[in-house]
Amino acid sequence: WFAEHHVSHGASSYFASPFDEAAILTVDGVGEWATATQGYGQGNSMELFHEIRFPHSLGLLYSTFTGYLGFKVNSGEYTLMGLAPYGEPEYVDLIKQHLVTTRPDGSFRLNMDYFGYLDGLTMTNDRFAALFGGPPRSPETPITRREMNLACSIQVVTEEIMLAMARYARVVTGKQHLVLAGGCALNCVANGRIVREGIFDDVW
Known about the structure:
There is one protein chain. By secondary structure, this protein is of the alpha/beta class. About 40% of the residues lie in helices and about 20% in strands. The strands form 2 sheets. It has a 5-stranded mixed β-sheet with strand order 3-2-1-6-7, sandwiched between helices. A two-stranded antiparallel sheet has the order 4-5.
């Protein structure tokens, strides 16, 4: 018997939390086919009732920018998050216009015309590079203002999507607490936004 990837994520957070009941939000690259789920836990049980499916993935969107900015995918995301406050959100509108369509409930769709991970070995393609003014940054080369602004911009978009997901989870579950899990839940800046917005009484 195998537990599904996002069920495992949700359980790892909810059952380890101090809460008797909580909304559950899991967000990562991809597990089986789900890339994000929302649900709730109560007592010794939990249920995930809403999911976003591959290839539409907030984790893969963030990792795409990680690779494009010259950092190692699946390990350099923390560097991207740390770079973000040094930049300005210059590219937020461009990202929203061309790469990702969002909805008020936090669900979204990626425009796969700009990504290479469905049919190739790279996260981005030439169209992505043209949109942001040039080829990916080579690792270990100097970081320019463009990289700082791109990091800031994708961080802002990520925070907005996670905030929308959290607000929707609060509305549909009615729970006062939230538990988070998955790779995107390692984005402590986005987590801090959720806490500061006061959507939930407490977050784990």
